[in-house]
Specification:
317 residues; mainly alpha; 12 helices; 75% helix
């Protein structure tokens, strides 16, 4: 963490102020520690005791809780409990993983293992999250661990007890370095007390961030839809202009009309030429007939006197 020495002093002062009157929970059963650790994560500490009490009243033992439907656990704890659906599922999954490994609901198989290996098994084999794994390690196996969640992270940021750019890894590593092992539970309880005081402010911050995120998502979705609509319009334009056998564009219809008009205009002179040519042919044919008739008439006149002359000569003989 940036400026770790500066923030370490502030955290120590905060713990000193909040540690007065705090006490560690007296829990002997490590299975109960698992359930408590799961229920505490990102939840106002004041809400946790009622949830634990509801589970204790409803179920005879943890084995009954293990085989309980997730829906039933949600109903028992309450729909309004933060992240209750995922928490109920996590409880069932972890208890079943323990039973599958040990054939009972006990963590005794971890007793003689090194603390580092215990933390790894809790995370990787039993599926516990960051907060619950650290909680069980600290309270159940006296390991050096500091349970942290987003509620603590944002509460410390609002109070300016850590650097604004810190994340959960930064916070957990920082707290585990500056916390004496003998005082780890005191530090945790003091920080939980601070979280309880800041929970409403943090929840209001989360609500504001959620609304801003939803608004940004709506804007992004609207922009994407608008862009998609524009692309579809752009793609449709060339298709509308393409000539098809069924649908013709206005330009094509206009062009065809003009072509027909030109064709009609070019046909009219041709008909006129044909008419004139026919008249000329008819006229020349008539003139030829007249000429032929005249020639025949002349010929008849010439032949007639000759025939007369021949007849007179024949009579003289």
């Amino acid at each position: 963490m940036k400026n770790s020495e500066h923030y370490a002093k502030k955290i120590r002062q905060l713990v000193k102020e909040k540690s007065a009157g705090v006490s560690a929970p007296q829990v002997d059963d490590k299975i109960e520690l698992i359930i408590r650790g799961i229920l505490e994560e990102n939840v106002d500490p004041r809400k946790v005791p009622a949830a634990l009490l509801a589970i204790e009243k409803e179920y005879v033992d943890f084995n009954e809780l293990r085989v309980s439907p997730v829906r039933d656990i949600i109903d028992v704890v309450g729909e309004n409990y933060p992240e209750i659906r995922s928490k109920a599922q996590s409880i069932v999954n972890t208890l079943q993983a323990i039973f599958d490994r040990a054939n009972n609901l006990s963590l005794d198989f971890l007793n003689n293992k090194p603390k580092r290996e215990i933390r790894k098994i809790l995370r990787e084999k039993l599926g516990l999250g960051r907060y619950a794994e650290s909680f069980v390690t600290l309270y159940g196996f006296d390991g050096h661990a500091m349970p942290v969640d987003n509620l603590l992270l944002d509460a410390l940021k609002l109070g300016e007890y850590i650097h604004p750019s810190s994340d959960l890894d930064d916070l957990q590593g920082f707290l585990e370095r500056i916390t004496p092992h003998a005082d780890a539970i005191t530090y945790h309880q003091a920080l939980r007390k601070y979280v309880s005081e800041m929970a409403r402010k943090v929840n209001r911050l989360w609500e504001k961030q959620r609304k801003e995120m939803e608004a940004a998502e709506r804007e992004q979705k609207a922009a994407a839809e608008e862009e998609k609509t524009e692309e579809e319009k752009t793609e449709e334009k060339p298709e509308a202009e393409e000539p098809t056998a069924v649908h013709e564009s206005k330009e094509e219809k206009t062009s065809k009309k003009k072509s027909k008009k030109r064709a009609k205009g070019s046909k009219k002179p041709t008909r006129a030429k044909k008419t004139k040519s026919a008249r000329r042919k008819k006229s020349s044919s008539t003139e030829a007939k007249v000429k032929s008739a005249r020639s025949a008439k002349k010929a008849s006149k010439i032949i007639a006197p000759k025939a007369k002359s021949d007849s007179s000569n024949h009579s003289k003989q």
